[in-house]
Amino acid sequence: MTSTPHLIAPPPDVQPDDAAATPVSRDVIVAGTLQRDLFRLGVVPCVIVALALTGWFTHSRLDALEAAFDAEGQAVARQVAAMSDLSLYAGDVPALQNVANAALRGGQVTRVEISNSAGVFVSAGPKTAPMGELRMFTAPVTLREASRATAFAPAGSTVAGDASIGLVQTFRDTTAYAHERTRVLMAGIGIAMLALLAAWAWVRHTARAVAQPLRRISRTVAALEAGQFDARCNVVTSSSDEDDDDAGSGGRRRTRHEFANLAHDINRLAERLQRNQQISDEQVREATAVALQRMAEAEQAALSRARFLAAASHDLRQPLHAMGLFIDGLLPTANPTQRPAVLRLQEATDFMGVLLDDLLEISRLDAQVLTPAIAGVSLASLFDQLEAQHAAAAAAARVRLVWKDRGLAVNSDPALLLRIVGNLVSNAIRHTPTDGTVLVVARRRGGAVRIEVRDNGVGIAPIHQTRIFEEFYQVANTERDRRQGFGLGLAICARIALLLGTRIKLRSALQAGSTFSLDLPIAHPRLVAAPTKEAAAAAPLAGLHCLVVDDDPAILDGSRTLLELWGCQVDCASTRKEALTRLDKTDAHFDVVLCDLQLDGEEDGMEVIEDTRRLQPDALAVLVSGATGPEALQRLRKGGVMLLTKPVAPAKLRALLSTKRAPILAAC
């Protein structure tokens, strides 16, 4: 009877050491357990049935042997008793001896003894065998009527008048009987072992036929799970199976076809998964292409915005710079009626200058042209500078400032750190209610120092906490009041913090105040340099010879007016050629050269600076520009040029000119 099911070959692309090795191992273990269960389920009943049948048949055979052995011995004893009744009654010993010898000649017994109570005793056969190997059978010798006498009467059956006159004892040797019992037992055991072996082989074959296809299916499923959607269960049908199918063996065909159907279902699932993967891959490729295109468009838009911001910043700074120069020149000579309007103009100009400065700062940070000068910074000195800067604003807002440096020092850029903490303190003062407190404290955290700026203001809602570091984002300034800032301070501070290798953290809740903090590497206070002394007061500028180079007539007029108001001697040039003519004069000596970066046409202010360094090496060469593009900033940084960003505050310009005037006065 054929029992081989449809064989399912493993997929050719699934290897034992591929990515699906772990799932395959797990599935093989499961299949092995199933195989053991099937083996146990098939073998145990076979063992029980085989042992039961073998035991029953063996026991029946042994009982039959026992009964036959006893029946033969008892029959011989009865036959001898029936033949020796008259001879024993008559005391005919020779006749009894003949009867006993005749019984031995049949070979069924090995010894016969006939005796009575009168002392007659006749025996035949050897008495050398041990009694343990002999079995004795007895029969009484009775006298009966001739018509009733029979050798085959049941034991003890007597009729009226019958009386026992003696006893017959026969002995049978049990050696042959024991050998027969042993042979029967061995035959039973052999048959049982053959049955068990056949059952074991059959069940093992059946279990393998069930488990191996499942194991192969499991490996295919594991390969699909690992993403190998081209794995398949290849169904191989043997010719014997086809013959069985044609013969109509319904039960076996259904069993085989269950594996085949399972394999086909898995193949259909794999095909569907493969199609879905192809569709998904195509969608991913399309989405990736769209994303890359949009990313390129976004980068191009960002570059366009950066170029636009740089161009717009330069175009705005030019008139703003001229406005500042003219306003500062008009303010000392304005009459009481004109002075309020001039002050308003100056305030508006200052606000526009602050906004453009912030935009320039962000551009410089994005362009990565700032390189931190890391050094030891004493927090006591830092907090003293911050106290001097913000004490007036805190007093005006009736906010108490508390500083706790705890004698700590950090490794950082002093100017950039002052900018970050100063902005945080300014924001805290602005958002702290009247009679509130702003606490600036330093705490040691292992090998770092945490600087915290705390206030007890209204706090920041969680919805705003992730956006306050974005450009132009302000929580409580929806009307865009410029006196509350432009929303660029925290964005600049966040970029500077990243430049210093840290980041600003925020803890805040509504009506519970806010805490801004940043962690910096700790420094030993003894290794921190002592703070430098404050610079001396600005020297007078009378007699300072300045050359102003700009293609904007308004800026030239404003610069001339302001510098001459300070007592400087001013020459102006609108092109590089004019500037070079003045610089190359034999009797020309300039103390300061202020040159715009972008001159008319293709001329570049950097070339004028290089001419100044070559022809007037003692002059202070300063580039004045409204350009904020990353390329321009990196170029100026590589050239080592001193830069003033338009619009230049008159106070800043005066302070710069004073640094050049002081050495001149000292030399005089």
Automatic annotation (TrEMBL):
<feature type="region of interest" description="Disordered">
    <location>
        <begin position="236"/>
        <end position="255"/>
    </location>
</feature>
<keyword id="KW-0597">Phosphoprotein</keyword>
<dbReference type="InterPro" id="IPR036890">
    <property type="entry name" value="HATPase_C_sf"/>
</dbReference>
<dbReference type="InterPro" id="IPR001789">
    <property type="entry name" value="Sig_transdc_resp-reg_receiver"/>
</dbReference>
<feature type="modified residue" description="4-aspartylphosphate">
    <location>
        <position position="596"/>
    </location>
</feature>
<keyword id="KW-0808">Transferase</keyword>
<dbReference type="InterPro" id="IPR003661">
    <property type="entry name" value="HisK_dim/P_dom"/>
</dbReference>
<keyword id="KW-0547">Nucleotide-binding</keyword>
<keyword id="KW-0067">ATP-binding</keyword>
<dbReference type="InterPro" id="IPR011006">
    <property type="entry name" value="CheY-like_superfamily"/>
</dbReference>
<dbReference type="Pfam" id="PF00512">
    <property type="entry name" value="HisKA"/>
</dbReference>
<feature type="domain" description="Response regulatory">
    <location>
        <begin position="545"/>
        <end position="661"/>
    </location>
</feature>
<dbReference type="Pfam" id="PF00072">
    <property type="entry name" value="Response_reg"/>
</dbReference>
<keyword id="KW-1133">Transmembrane helix</keyword>
<keyword id="KW-0418">Kinase</keyword>
<dbReference type="InterPro" id="IPR004358">
    <property type="entry name" value="Sig_transdc_His_kin-like_C"/>
</dbReference>
<dbReference type="InterPro" id="IPR003594">
    <property type="entry name" value="HATPase_dom"/>
</dbReference>
<dbReference type="GO" id="GO:0005524">
    <property type="term" value="F:ATP binding"/>
</dbReference>
<feature type="domain" description="Histidine kinase">
    <location>
        <begin position="311"/>
        <end position="524"/>
    </location>
</feature>
<keyword id="KW-0812">Transmembrane</keyword>
<feature type="region of interest" description="Disordered">
    <location>
        <begin position="1"/>
        <end position="20"/>
    </location>
</feature>
<feature type="transmembrane region" description="Helical">
    <location>
        <begin position="184"/>
        <end position="203"/>
    </location>
</feature>
<protein>
    <recommendedName>
        <fullName>histidine kinase</fullName>
        <ecNumber>2.7.13.3</ecNumber>
    </recommendedName>
</protein>
<dbReference type="InterPro" id="IPR036097">
    <property type="entry name" value="HisK_dim/P_sf"/>
</dbReference>
<dbReference type="Pfam" id="PF02518">
    <property type="entry name" value="HATPase_c"/>
</dbReference>
<dbReference type="Pfam" id="PF00672">
    <property type="entry name" value="HAMP"/>
</dbReference>
<feature type="domain" description="HAMP">
    <location>
        <begin position="208"/>
        <end position="278"/>
    </location>
</feature>
<dbReference type="InterPro" id="IPR005467">
    <property type="entry name" value="His_kinase_dom"/>
</dbReference>
<feature type="transmembrane region" description="Helical">
    <location>
        <begin position="38"/>
        <end position="57"/>
    </location>
</feature>
<keyword id="KW-0472">Membrane</keyword>
<dbReference type="InterPro" id="IPR003660">
    <property type="entry name" value="HAMP_dom"/>
</dbReference>
